[in-house]
Design brief:
The complex is a heterodimer. Chain A is of the alpha+beta class. Helices cover 43% and strands 25% of the residues of chain A. Chain A is built from 5 helices and 8 strands. In chain A, strand 3 and strand 4 form a beta hairpin. Chain B is α+β, with helices and mostly antiparallel strands. The longest helix of chain B is centred in the middle third of the chain and has 88 residues. The chains are: A alpha+beta, B alpha+beta. The interface between A and B is medium-sized, with 20 and 17 residues.
Chain lengths: 194, 440
Amino acid sequence: MSIVLPLDEEQRDALQELLNISMGQAANSLAQLIETKIDISIPKISAVTPTQLYSLLFETEDSFYTRQSFLGDVHGEVMSVLSRAGLTEVATLMDYDDPLSKEDIQEIILELCNILAGACLAGLSDQLELTTNLNMPTLFQPHKSNFDDLKWQHSLVMEVQFVIAISSFSMRVVFCLDDESLARMKATLDELLA
Amino acid sequence: MFEQLVGKLPVGIGIVDESFNVVYLNDFFLDRLPHELRKNYKETPVTDLFHGQGKFLKRRLKSVFVLQHPSFSYWEQRPHIFPFKSSRPITGEETQMYQNMEILPVKDKATGQRYACIFLQDVTAQASYFRAQQKLSEALKKEHDAQKKLIRKLDTAQSQLIQAEKMASTGQLAAGIAHEINNPIGFVNANLNTLGQYASHLISICDGVYSHLESFNDELSEQIEALYQSNHYDLVKEDITELIEESTDGLTRVKDIVENLKNFSLENSEGVQTVDIFTVCNQLITLISAQYSTPQYKFDCEREKVEVMGNPGPLKQALMNVMINAAQAIDTKGVIKLSVQESGDQVIIKILDSGCGIPAQHLKRVFEPFFTTKPEGQGQGLGLSVAYTAIEQHQGKISISSKEAKGTVVEISIPKQPSNVTGVSPENDSDPSDTVPEGA
């Protein structure tokens, strides 16, 4: 089964460019806060089925997972995968004291994805002139949820990766949009391209 | 009107400027501020007003100002950011307020000044409910696990009981069969003796004829000679005595085994009487060595009669079970040494084997009923527990020490004259040692 990307070539390029800019802003924000250099990957845009989404996100070993929903002009969810490795160094950069308690670790994870996902989303919605409000992030245990039971067939996902230069820490942020939001996004992109 | 509304909202709302100085606090915060500070809280750093998680609060405020992006904190990770008491100081269980916090960046449209708005939610009720739920579910899980364990234990116990019951009836069957075998063995033995005599008579006759061979005429003596030759007389003569002797030996062994089997499975209800440990041990070695021929058996006893007062059935059963364990511990080569000593009014029986030994973690459980390391269906885990009960009945002691791959020593000491032996009255017929023949 071939999956037809719901965006055409032009729309995709535009979105990728916008995403690139907002990611840069996000990385900058975090870099400013923890005073260290952050590398970013080229954003990937694709359409996935629930099963594909599951393997895209949760087949990484030794990671933490979070999810965070956003509302406003577009609705969707941001899911993040954070590596366990290197988290201690990041915690030190974020001014946490060693040793880290379980609660400290949870707090750091939630804060990290709040910052990065928030910055990405804020940047993207700014450029698309859409309003979005991010809700609280929560920890996610994908093995407890059944992705096969999800109601949707395809979703547009935008995937970006951040790597903190001085440690082995890396984090992937995946944005998923619902159908209605996708239509709105496409319309907005078309307006921009016109 | 809006100011009033914001003031009365059931969430904490506080606004701080970029140097973290307080610009506004709603009633939620003010109510919890010390009295003397309520009038002039403005322009004071928020961390000076509320001594709690100052470092954390500053960090989060900084992040909000730098990133211009909201920040969240949950009670699960950081329950008490502001040092507030629970909203129910009298009846509540929680003494400190559980808080969720959200900090939002805000901007004064007129001046362009940046602020951070702190929302504080009292989630003490949810938190205590959640924690109670969690405790409950933990307790439930624990109980569930314990029950599961118990059910498993019951299952094995049941199957082992069935097995034990089978073994008991097998034991009775064996005793019955032993009794039945005794009769044919009796006449076979008698016949064999007669047969031996007859054989020697026949040989004398043949020898007699042969020695008078020259008295016959040539034709006849040749015929007799041919007859002897064709029937391999020399071979028959040489072999027949040996065959009969061997058969007698074999039969004696069968008799011994059957006798011992009878002794060990039938003598259950005789009550207290004099038991000669020396004889018992000898019987035991005969019986066990017939079944387990690999180990080398040694018996060491100072005197040829060591008498104790006891219940022979259980006592023999106990020794038998220990001996069987010893024999089964030896795989290819090894020694089992049985020694009996008298020490004052006690008799000490030591059973030593050079077998595989018992791992330390199992050692303290070997006397537990149904504890076994054998594959299912091969052992009931009753042998030593039966032995233990029997020895206890005789006010004796049984102890075990073992080293893996070296061997095991079981030491049993019983008083020669126990003051009161239990387990002999009829109502104790259901004692496990009565119904369980063997097995460890």
